[in-house]
Amino acid sequence: MRLKYDFRPMEKSTRFTFGDQVRDNMFWTLASGVPIWSAWSVLYFYAAANGWVPKLDSVSASPTWFVLMFFVIRFWQSFHFYWIHRLIHVPWLFKHVHYLHHRNVNVGPWSGLSMHPVEHILYYSGVLIHFLLPSHPIHVLFHLFALNLGAVYSHSGFDKIILRDKKTMKAGSFHHQLHHRHFECNYGSEEIPLDRWYGSFHNGTSTASKRIRARKKLIFSRR
Ligand SMILES: [Zn+2]
Ligand SMILES: [Zn+2]
Q: CA–CA separation, 143 vs 123, rounded Å?
């Protein structure tokens, strides 16, 4: 519990499917996330097998592009997530789609992919980049797995892993934890400072809380 962001346990509440946060989160991950993730994978590899998308057939064909593409994917994943996330915070989409993910105020690993099917379709749509840029199958698999494991990681609810009483590697995202607490801040991830540029950055201080509260008031007064 030393490095847990929120000490409260996962909730049992009628707000969640089956009245239980963990079961709810597992259900939406497995019943909606897995089939939609698989459908995007099948769509890409079917298109690639039929020659409908630009491909990098071997690493030796362009080693520089092969390496560079991993950085492009990381950057793109962050960029795409920010804008998709802003979109589903539009009041109508929030009310009908994104509310499901935000039932989780205190998050756990299963919360990361606990999304409405429409949100899953949008979230995984980042793989469309491989329909435009020449990709090796390893790029696409890296991207597809990063989308899943990244969400588990960013919702783990813990800051670091402790090994033999020493803090070792990072295990969660304080940035996104704050998004679940305050809603109208930190829409993106920390790789690209889009939240800083658009005034929605929250660093966990009380000054930032005040600023975000004022921002929330403004947003809700416009609705
Ligand atoms: Zn989240
Ligand atoms: Zn959100």
A: 12
